[in-house]
Amino acid sequence: MFLGLSFVAVVIGLPLAAVFTEALRKGLGAYFTAISDEYALQAIKLTFLVAAISVPCNLVFGVAASWAVAKFEFLGKRLLVTFIDLPFSVAPVISGLVYVLLFGAHSILGEWLIENDIQIIFAVPGLVIATIFVTFPFVARELIPLMEEQGTEQEEAALLLGASGWQTFWKVTIPNIKWGLLYGVLLCNARAMGEFGAVSVVSGHIKGSTNTIPLHVEILYNDYNFVAAFAVASILTLLALVTLLLKRAVEIRTHENDK
Amino acid sequence: MNIALRKPSVIPGFGLSLGFTLTYLSLIVLIPLSGLFLKTFTLTWEKFWIEVTDERIMHAYYITFGCSFIAALINVFFGLIMAWILVRYRFPGRKFLDSVVDLPFALPTAVAGIALTALYAPGGWIGKYFEALGIKIAFTPAGIVIALVFISLPFVVRTVQPVLEDMEHEIEEAAASLGATRWQTFTMIILPHISPALLTGFAMAFARALGEYGSVIFIAGNMPMVSEIVPLIIITKLEQYDYAGATAIAVVMLVASFVLLLIINLLQKWSQTRTVKD
Questions:
Q1: Which of A1, A70, A195, B79 could make an S-S bridge to A148, C-beta 3.0–4.6 Å?
Q2: Is-contact A126 A120, C-beta < 8 A?
Q3: Interface pTM (ipTM) of the complex?
Q4: A10 at interface of B, judged by CB pairs closer than 8 A
Q5: How is B86-143 classified by DSSP, letter by letter?
Q6: Other beta carbons within 10 Å of B91
C-alpha cells in the first residue's frame, strides 16, 4: 500500500509539482510575461484553431462510424473497427512522416500542390491533418461499445411510431450517447492540443505561424528559457487537470444514469 | 448457403454512415499509410537492408526496444500494486488517486518531458540525490526508462483493474478455508486469473513506449549510439531530406507496432474466453 502510494507520488505527483514550481521560479510577474508573449499567444491561438477543426471532424466521423458499426450487421465489420484503431498503434512521429510523404515537395501530390500554390506541410493545414490522424479513433472508440450495448430497440420503436430517420437520430440516439460523446470529445481534445511528435514532423517550427503550444514549449526549452517554457507548459498542464476533472464528472454522471 | 453481405434492417442511414466512414477512413488513414509502404518499395531490398541495419540505427533499436521493455516490466509490477490498492482498499482520496493514474494519458508528452528532465537532471529534486551517489539519470538510458515508465503507467493499471474488480471473492475464501496462506492464494489463484490482463497491459505499455517521442527527447540526451531513440532518428533523417531512409526505418517500426497490435488483440480474446469459462 505504502509502496504503491509512494510510487504514484514520485512518478506522477513530482513531475506535476515540478511544472508549476519551475514556472513560478521567477515569480508571478515573469510567469505572466511569458504566457502573454506574442509568440506564446500565437501558439495558443494556433493550438485552439487546430483543435477546433480536428475535434468536430473526428466527432462527426465517430458518430457516423459507430452508427454504421453498432446499428447494422455487415461483412467486414470487425476489419473496419481494426482499421479505425490503427492510428492508435502508429507512433506519433510516423503519423507525421506519412503526411510529409504524401504532401511534401517530393511526393506525387507535391508538384501539383506547388503549381497551385497550396501549402500543406510546414503550414497550418498540415498541422490540422496530422492532428486529425492521431486523434482519429478517440470518439469512435468511446461510442462503438456504448452504442452496441444500447442496441437498436429504441430506434426501431421510434421508427415504428412514425419518426423519420433524422428525428430518430437526434431525439433518441443522441440523448442516449451524450455522455459517451462528451467523454470521447474530451479525450480527443486533450490529445489534439497536446500532440507533439506528429505535429513536430509536419510543422515548419516557425515561431508565430506554425507553432502549437507543445512545439513552442520545446523551442523555449531548447533556448534555455526554462521559466518561459514551464510557464507555457503549465497552461497545458492546467488543461490536462481540467480534462481529468471533467472526465471524472462524466464518469459520475454515467454511473448515476446506470442506477 | 446464405451469405449475406448485410443483414436487412429497418434502421435507415446505412449507406450514408458507412459511406462517410469509409471515405474519411481511406482519406485520413488508409491512403496515407499505404503511401508509406509504397514509398518503401521504391528502395531495392539491398538498399532497404543497408538503411535499417546501419550501426547507429541498430543501437537506436536496441535502446528503444530495450528501454520500452524495461519500462513496461516496471509498470507491470507497480501497475499491479496500483490496481490492487484501488480495488481492494477503501481510503480517503481513493477516487482522486484513480483519476491521477490517468494523468500521463492527459498530459502532453512535451510537458512530461521537460518536467521529468527538470526533476532528474543533476540539479533537480531527485537528480541531486543520485548525483551525490555518482549515478547519472538524465541524459542516459536510465532517464529514457523513467520517462517511458511515466507515460505507459496507466495501461497496466487500467487493464488489470476491471479484472480484479470482477473477481469473485468466493474463490479466495474457498482457498483460505482450505488452508492456503495469503501468498499461496495470491500466486496460485489470483495471479493466474489476472495474468492475461497483465500480459495485455504489458503489451500495450510496451507498444506505447516504443513510439514515444515527446517525453523522451528532453531527458535522453540524444547522443548517437548511447541514448538515441528510433523516432528521433526518423526526424533527423527527415531534416536531412533522406526520405527513403526515414521511410525504411518507419516501416520497420510500423511492422513491429502492427505485430504487437495483433498480439494484444489475441491476448484480449484469450482473456475473454478465460473469464467466460470462469
A1: A70
A2: yes
A3: 0.85
A4: yes
A5: HHH---TTHHHHHHHTTHHHHS-HHHHHHHHHHHHSTTSTTHHHHHHTT---TTSHHH
A6: 10
Rounded to a whole number of angstroms, the distance from the CA of B129 to the nearest CA of chain A is 14
DSSP class of residue A76? Answer: T
Q: Where are the domains of chain B?
A: 58-277
Helix/strand/coil percent split, chain A, to 5: 80, 0, 20
Helices (H) and strands (E) in chain B, counts: 15, 0
Rounded distance between C-alpha atoms, residue B250 and residue B243, angstroms: 10
Q: How confident is the model at residue A25 (pLDDT cuts 50, 70, 90)?
A: confident
Q: Which of A241, A211, A196, A197 is nearest to A41 (CA)?
A: A211
**What pTM was computed for the model?**
0.87
A64: Cα within 13 Å, side-chain hemisphere: 19
Q: Please give the distance of CA A118 from its chain centroid, rounded to a whole number.
A: 25
CATH number of the domain at B58-277, please?
1.10.3720.10
Cβ–Cβ under 8 Å, residues B246 and B52:
no
Q: pLDDT by residue (tens digit) across B58-71?
A: 888 889 999 999 99
Q: Which of B26, B43, B114, B146 to mutate to test the interface with A (most CBs of A within 10 A)?
A: B114
Residue B278: pLDDT band (50, 70, 90) is very low
